[in-house]
Amino acid sequence: MFSKRAFVTALVVAFVAGLIASLALRSTVGPAVVASHSSEGVARRIHWRVPLSTAQNLPGSGETIVWLAENVAAASGGTIHLDLFDPGEIVPAFAITDAVRDGKVQAGITWLGYDQGKIPSSALFGATPFGLDPPGYISWWFFGGGRELADEVYGEHNVKPLFCMITGPETAGWFSTPIESSADLKGLKIRFAGVGGKVMQRLGASITMLPSGEIFQALETGVIDATEFSQPITDKALGFSRIAKYNYFPGWHQPFSASHLIVNIDVWNALASADQVFLESMCTATVARQYGLSESLQGPIIREYRDSGVEARYLPREMLLELKRTADEVLNEEAENDEYFKRVLASQRDFKAMYGEWKSLAYLPSDL
Fold it and tell me: pLDDT tens for residues 81-114?
């Protein structure tokens, strides 16, 4: 028979052995699985902190992110939870990829163009000036090699990108005075993002990058003279029309605007394959929902312009041609300096040319 002391020793050994086994299991599973419980007491198998580059309260883009998180929870029976954080709450708006790469958070949702300072080709996954339209980008991503290129580019940065949202063109910008030609851009202080910002800079504008929450104050105080950010519904919520009364179109710099759920690669690889498929499928559904939602929201805002003193104007054709020439120059130069940029740009251009064979014949002209 065991003595009391031997019995206690055996219990301690068993406890330590169980603790070691538990820690070993956790290290195998990795940070993708976080034990927690929902308010309803449902055990959460996956609980991620997800910083955002766009605030949740912004109509269109923000509400789509909330829809994604709510439906991931609902469809998983509460076992998968995405805990959303607005820009700056835990990670600055432009530093989300760094935080995901370094494992500070499991995942994030961002516009990849914000990474172009460190990953030049990232801008093309977010928006390409005079590039594909939204249906073309969706086709390219899923069936034209886009997803594989993004995996290759971001895999080198310890990140798995999931295409999760898309809108149609943004506006070409909000200005306090009319824009008649590219000469009017010289010396203009403007908030502009992506490769489009480099194009504007080439034409003489002074470019700055600001997160959405800082743009209105910069306009109001004269730190910037003009801005672009998103589509009319979102720009209205940010108050741009209270200061700048000329809203220009078309969105040459962002004929599509794609955002991605990015996941730390170790976290992603630790997921069960069924959970990977589930999250990719939820993102694909969100792409369709946001595109439909964003297209439905803009017309009423344009109609409101007349009553609010805002003028919606189309850029002169000669100016668009000059923007196109300059954009091609900038894109070609970027391609010469970065191999991934070259490959992604060539892939998009080839797909656009092929897609154009169908698009030019299949769809009715807009004036019929």
Answer: 999 999 999 999 999 999 999 999 999 999 999 9
CATH class belonging to 173-253+308-362: alpha beta
| Fold classification of 31-168+256-296 (topology level) | D-Maltodextrin-Binding Protein; domain 2 (3.40.190)
Confidence (pTM): 0.89
Long-range contacts from 183-186, C-beta under 8 angstroms, 24+ separation: none
Give me the residue label for tokens 């910008």: 173
Please write the tens of the pLDDT for every residue from 136-166: 999 999 999 999 999 999 999 999 999 999 9
pLDDT at residue 326 in the model: 98
Shared fold status for 31-168+256-296 and 173-253+308-362: yes
Distance in angstroms (rounded) separating the CA atoms of residues 103 and 20: 24
